[in-house]
Amino acid sequence: MPGCFKRTLFALVSALSFVSFILITVAMASQNWMSGKILCKTGAELVNATDPELVKFIGDIHYGIFRGGKVRQCGLGGRRSKFTIFPHMVKKLNTALHMMIILFLCVAMSFALVSLGFCILNAIKVPYRAIKGPWGLCLWNIIAGGFAALAVTSFMAAVRLHHLTERIANFQENVFQFVILEEQYECSFWLCVASATTHAVNLLLIAISAIRFPKLKTKTEEANVTAEDIMY
């Protein structure tokens, strides 16, 4: 059986792996990945709006991996609307990149559960194969954390390089054109960052568990045997 110190570390790694799984699940289920300010460029140009009047043409947008919503401000008051990315909007986006983000998140969730299972296995019994020892745990956490990091990086690439927010804001807008004034990553995005960070912490804990600490041995006093002791 593993020592008490190692069992404690494996239990902590198991808890962090489960937390990572929960973080990604919550991030995928929510719609708070990105928020921003959108300017109704067409409406502002029609009335030749100046700086004080541009407030009437600035709306809001927020979205996640699967759905979102926006407030259109085109001079006639705010109009709220909700949208879903699947099945129609995704065709106007970078479909391959968006599907890669979802795939990376699913793989990260799966290997977080694999890491959880093998951590429990290492905590209750002595590993009899390398894949079930510290090196195996490192492998599962590297894969889970790596795919979570890839999902975060891919989403940033979609926002910055492929103008994801602008494409979503202008989806099915035949009359008005919207310009992005401000973008901000929201809590769901940072949950995925936290998920990748938990696996980095797991790697540190696993490395600590592989350290062999010297055992403290008490010195036994040498018994002085005399001739009288032998006689009795």
UniProtKB/TrEMBL annotation:
<feature type="transmembrane region" description="Helical">
    <location>
        <begin position="96"/>
        <end position="124"/>
    </location>
</feature>
<dbReference type="GO" id="GO:0016020">
    <property type="term" value="C:membrane"/>
</dbReference>
<dbReference type="GO" id="GO:0120045">
    <property type="term" value="P:stereocilium maintenance"/>
</dbReference>
<keyword id="KW-0812">Transmembrane</keyword>
<dbReference type="InterPro" id="IPR026748">
    <property type="entry name" value="Clarin"/>
</dbReference>
<dbReference type="GO" id="GO:0060088">
    <property type="term" value="P:auditory receptor cell stereocilium organization"/>
</dbReference>
<feature type="transmembrane region" description="Helical">
    <location>
        <begin position="188"/>
        <end position="211"/>
    </location>
</feature>
<comment type="similarity">
    <text>Belongs to the clarin family.</text>
</comment>
<feature type="transmembrane region" description="Helical">
    <location>
        <begin position="136"/>
        <end position="159"/>
    </location>
</feature>
<keyword id="KW-0472">Membrane</keyword>
<dbReference type="Pfam" id="PF25807">
    <property type="entry name" value="Clarin-2"/>
</dbReference>
<keyword id="KW-1133">Transmembrane helix</keyword>
<dbReference type="GO" id="GO:0032421">
    <property type="term" value="C:stereocilium bundle"/>
</dbReference>
<protein>
    <submittedName>
        <fullName>Clarin 2</fullName>
    </submittedName>
</protein>
<dbReference type="GO" id="GO:0007605">
    <property type="term" value="P:sensory perception of sound"/>
</dbReference>
